[in-house]
Specification:
The chain is mainly alpha-helical. The protein has helices at residues 11-22, 25-37, 41-69, 73-80, 87-118, 130-138, 141-160, 164-190, 195-203, 212-226, 232-237, 246-274, 285-295, 300-331, 338-357, 373-399, 403-411, 418-445.
């Protein structure tokens, strides 16, 4: 592995860390409100199809590139395609991760603030107005900037100490607990009066609600939720030993992601309809519905605090991967400077996140193509840069990367037939790029 100091200690550690990179705000926070705004069940079905036939092959591709090169994203493309423009795919990933973090960290700050408020029982109360509380928090410049700063600080501290002893160990305990508490919430949500109406909205496809823009959002969400397109998992897989099956690992990550997305929908939408809220609530959906659900549970304050702590962890594991692609790019030849590079990176991301943090207060009237800074950056990253990144990665692995190396990485430690490899390569050659191009055409002509 080219002398790298750290590697994942086990296959489970790698899978849980990769799942942690994927399972965060994308699956738990963003998926429910994007689904609610795009028709419910039909959107969920399209999302699953994109995840399995485009997102999963992309996930395998990033794993193949990363372990095949044994280097972080930019250096990986430079090693596999020297004296070419392909390293710009890694640079695009770095830029995209930076832009993504500029608004993702703002939402992470909201989670952090909610978590801190929940511990002394400041959120759940008999007279609480949860939409008003969320509006108060997001419209306060001081609170949002404090949340942003603290969220980034946690990232800087953890990442400055490396990977194996921090992220990996925590994932092995926190990710299973996240699943357990999610299931508890789902069970409680499904027992609410009127819950089945929400279940029908989420699981019954109504394709008349699907538009070209909805399909674009579903594609973008499949990329966003699996953390593919920006080569962050190229960097993660570069730390991976050769006795691990890449297709198997990718499959587990995709399955866990779909399962968490389903749990998020089953936790949110029954409660939305039960309490007469709108499924098109937007980014505040989770922050409004979760306290409402927990307020109806015995020991609701305790369970809300525990879940928010776990949700915060899931949010952080995703941001770790985004920070890691940037930090590793500058520590490839200066590993001893990791702490100082982590600090500088965090400071730059904080400054870049200020406009998004103020999008619901001081800068709420500032619009970019009819969207505030937070939403405009989200749209640019999720629906343009991520698909472009995926398209370039697909072209790279099919047309530029050495075919023998690709097959070797795919088949290593894999009890798979050559037909599986051929099927994956066919998807990467035709379905993935065609899917991305068709969705863009629908957007343009729609």
């Amino acid at each position: 592995m080219d002398g790298r100091k750290e590697q994942w200690s086990s296959k489970l550690g790698f899978i849980l860390s990769s799942a942690g990179a994927a399972i965060g705000l994308g699956a738990i926070w963003k998926f429910p409100y994007v689904t609610g705004m795009n028709g419910g069940g039909a959107f969920f079905l399209v999302f699953i199809a994109f995840t399995l036939f485009i997102g999963l092959p992309m996930l395998v591709s990033e794993f193949v590139i990363g372990r095949g090169a044994g280097k972080e994203a930019i250096s990986a493309y430079a090693k596999l395609a020297p004296d070419s423009l392909w390293p710009w795919v890694g640079r695009l990933g770095l830029i995209g991760s930076f832009l993504l973090l500029s608004f993702y960290s703002v939402a992470g700050g909201w989670v952090l603030i909610y978590t801190a408020m929940s511990i002394p029982g400041m959120i759940i109360s008999g007279s609480a107005n949860y939409p008003e509380l969320f509006g108060t928090i997001t419209s306060s410049p001081a609170v949002t900037l404090l949340g942003l700063a603290l969220f980034i600080l946690i990232n800087v501290v953890v990442l400055s100490f490396g990977i194996q002893n921090g992220i990996e160990k925590a994932n092995k305990y926190m990710m299973p607990l996240l699943f357990i508490f999610f299931i508890i919430i789902v069970i409680r949500a499904l027992t609410l009066e009127g819950a089945m109406e929400g279940v029908r909205f989420f699981l019954t496809p109504s394709f008349e609600n699907i538009t070209g823009e909805s399909i674009l959002y579903a594609l973008g969400q499949s990329f966003f939720a699996l953390a593919v397109g920006f080569s962050v998992l190229v960097t993660y897989s570069s730390y991976l030993e050769r006795d691990v099956s890449l297709p198997s690992s990718a499959g587990w990550v995709a399955i866990m992601n779909i399962f968490v997305s389903m749990l998020a929908g089953l936790a949110i939408f029954p409660a939305v309809f039960s309490f007469g809220l709108e499924p098109t609530e937007g980014p505040g959906l989770l922050f409004i519905v979760l306290p409402t659900v927990f307020s109806q549970m015995p020991l609701g304050e305790l369970f809300l605090s525990l879940f928010l702590l776990l949700f915060l962890f899931a949010t952080l594991t995703s941001s770790f991967s985004l920070f890691e692609i940037m930090i590793s790019a500058f520590t490839e030849k200066k590993r001893e400077a990791r702490k100082s590079i982590s600090l500088v990176t965090g400071l730059i991301v904080f400054l870049a996140g200020i406009p998004a943090a103020l999008s619901f207060s001081i800068l709420k009237d500032f619009q970019i193509f009819g969207k505030n800074v937070f939403d405009a950056t989200d749209f640019l990253v999720s629906n343009i840069l991520l698909p472009v990144g995926c398209l370039l990665i697909a072209l790279f692995i099919v047309h530029r990367m050495d075919k023998k190396l690709v097959e070797q990485e795919f088949m290593t430690a894999t009890a798979a037939s050559p037909a599986l490899y051929a099927g994956w390569r066919w998807l990467m050659q035709w379905i993935v790029p065609m899917g991305i191009i068709i969705v863009f055409i629908n957007l343009i002509t729609g």
